[in-house]
């Protein structure tokens, strides 16, 4: 079984170009082997809705690292396997925009799995929202906390794999190249 890097980001506003928190959960050989969580100073404004949803405010992140300060600490984790997210194009898009905004070069593209897309094929006819899937599988969830969300995503992936899902049937590639400004 491959090494999977489930991650989740929270954002400070509707622009979704910066993150205010990141959670990373590493799964290998069918088990969770490592977890990481950090608030992130997005160096931008917070929308009231995002603060209400996540509980993260400008005050919460005042002593948190910025993305360029955090990236050297997490780049090794993020590069260590297949990325996984629940609604992956959202989280990958935020990551790509952060890298782009701070002129941080990384990979041209990354392999990824989306647990929403997997779930729609494996368990059709039910809701595939993270909270609904967590409840379905009996997974503890503190929704919109990036650490809890990334762990739930990893747990959901592991259940799909135990149900017989094969990575090759769901693996996609996401371009991390900067968008033209």
Strand order of the largest sheet: 3-2-1-4-5-6
Helical proportion, percent range: 25-40%
What is the overall silhouette? globular
Biggest sheet details: 6 strands, mixed
- In CATH terms, what is the fold-level topology? Nucleotidyltransferase, domain 5
Number of domain modules: 1
Relevant terms:
181 residues, alpha/beta, Nucleotidyltransferase, domain 5, six-stranded mixed sheet, globular
Provide an overview of this structure.
There is one protein chain. This protein has a single domain, classed as Nucleotidyltransferase, domain 5 (2-Layer Sandwich). It has helices at 48-54, 67-78, 88-101, 115-122, 130-137, 146-162, and strands at 3-10, 21-28, 31-39, 82-85, 109-114, 172-175. The mean pLDDT is 96. Strands 3-2-1-4-5-6 form a six-stranded mixed β-sheet. α5 crosses α6. The chain is of the alpha/beta class and 181 residues long.
